[in-house]
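Regression test attached.
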Amino acid sequence: MSPSPASIPPAPADAGAPLYLERNYLNARRGLWSWLTTLDHKRIGVMYLVLTSAALFLGGIFAMLLRIELLTPGPTIMSALAYNRTFTLHGVVMIFLFMIPAIPGIFGNFFLPLMIGARDVAFPRLNLLSVYLYLTGAAIALYGMIHGGADTGWTFYTPYSTTTVTMVWPILLGAFVLGMGSIVTGLNFIVTVHTLRAPGIGFMRMPLFVWALYATSIIQVLATPVLGITLLLVAVENVFGFGIFDPARGGDPVLFQHMFWFYSHPAVYIMILPAMGAITEVLSAFARKNTFGYRAVAFSSLGIAFVGFFTWGHHLFTSGQSTVDAGIFGVLSMFVGIFTAIKIFNWTATLYRGSIAIRTPFIYVIAFLFFLLFGGMTGIALATVALDVHWQDTYFVVAHFHFIMVGGTVAGFLAALTYWWPKMFGKSYSERWGIVGATLIFLGFNFTFIPQFLLGNEGMPRRYYSYPVRFWPLNVASTAGASVLALGFLVVLATLLLSLKYGKPAGPNPWGSRGYEWKTLSPPPEGNFLTQPTYPRMPHDYDDLNPGRGGH
Amino acid sequence: MPAAESHVAHHFPDLEVQSHAARLGMWLFLATEVLLFGGLFTAYALYRMLYPSAFHGASRLIETSMGALNTVVLITSSLTVALAFHYSRQSRNRLAALLLVATIGLGFVFLGVKAVEYAHHFREGHLPGRFYRYAGLQVPGASMFFTVYFLMTGLHGIHVIIGMGVLTWLAVGAWRGSYGGDYTTPIELGGMYWHLVDLIWIFLFPLLYLI
């Protein structure tokens, strides 16, 4: 094959392929029942897309209520208790119902088998079970929200969470069930990667999104059970008063913090690693270059997963931890920065001398790189004990983790969504409106959270519904930014939904990507492939398009 | 072997890969169980360190001989479940089913002994947290011992009950001849789970009864 460098040649499997596969996984079987009982990983991915998007919308509404309340220094639209409940719900919904399940649940389920040439995940029934565990957990948590909701924050710190009058236990139980769903997904992915790779796809030829999911799954399987037992203990304490975290009965509330963060810090990497994996795919596709430093990017995912288990103590710098412990946890936390930097340098090197196509997904990649660098560097600063004592529980911390979680994970999510949408549904969305949405989100995000860094540095504490007048202007800026951010999300939603009805058929590979998942038709047939693809080259091998530049 | 082929799901190339996947999945699940109990072992270690003499005194209040009896019962049940797998591989399905029933019976013995112990604790007031009312040992930390004791043995007991449910399902299948020969993975996985439940008890017994 000798293609001209100017045009993107179709992959061999695409030759003569239909623009839109009429009989695909979406319509091969019909009716609601066929969806509720489906074992098809692609349909399960679509169900996760609907459910987690609804959660993102709900959590976004809570976020807007918070920002409206903070528009003025005094009470604006709600009481202090209502504010406490709202930020708890915002955190619980965003973390347990969106951040953790979204990218693995949607794109992991849909694309992991496609990327390794498999017909399904190893345990399709467990996969369906994970959807129902998600629904059950969400229903239990919603029950708690309707009956008053908790006011503890999503961290459920004892002894407050065991003495508050609000309904904490349904939300704890809901998070426990959601955790089971997360474990099932992770277990399924690990076994799938080990047993169902098609001939020709060795471990060192897997797409890097698969590597990221693999590392994520290890965290999900090993960390989530500890959260499970911790939440159960708080629920038992709440209902029966066994005293396990109650100082009045000899219990130690700091034990809760250790056990909680043993899960919840690695959980941050459950949220960001899949986004990093998706970004790696999108970045290579739009730079038209194979990923620089494939091994380094793959192993840095595992490195983050491993080191992530030994950093939880940085949440306890001000909880009576010894100085030596705090120092050790601070240094270990900075190792995460090293692994993340390995990724950032390799991404940058991938872009270097690539023939970059500025399309909607790529704008999210650029936004992601900026947010991750900014959020990551402030994370290094926060891992420094002396600085953290100053910033503890201020808006600086809030801004830092929103840079990673919203800037990183949500930008990664949107990059993945806009990149894979044509494969999932076979339709092209409006490129113009896609770019408008991405731009609004980038600008709105910066206007929301950069003021919060400044507020935190000046000493505004988190989780208060009122504040001194001197913090007023920056809070107005943050709320204005949040409004633009919300508008951006609505534009993205409308753009994508309208494409389902009015979009043109996208064709099997509209981006000319050399990722393995593009070797099938759009939308994919029920059994994933009409003929089993072959994998003669590395994923994202564009070397023949870059004559003279040499491959990395 | 047509009987075995029918057990292979469409997305697996053959039975060997499918069995390998099932075993790997089970090992990962067992890892999650270890970490679930790991949280309780951490709590035990912390409170034992904080209240060494209270924990020592309180552990004298539970009957070592009962714990020892249950240890023997569970180890024996591990033998019977292993033998069930062994005979299932030789397609001696009825014998495998009977051995599984014996395992379930030993599970009942374990739960019975545990119930006698619990009843004694309830009578004497050896209870967790705010329910503790045993006059013979009123030191800080004594109630925490029973908090940890009931949480650990309670969670373990729930696992024993779940295991017995799984083994019942397997015994019915074995009796009907659903397994045997090349296809014994379900019995193998059920046995692995039962072994883990035993293994956790092997740790609970010395920590709670002996030291």
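Expected vs. actual: identical. The domain at 43-545 of chain A is CATH 1.20.210.10 (Cytochrome C Oxidase; Chain A).
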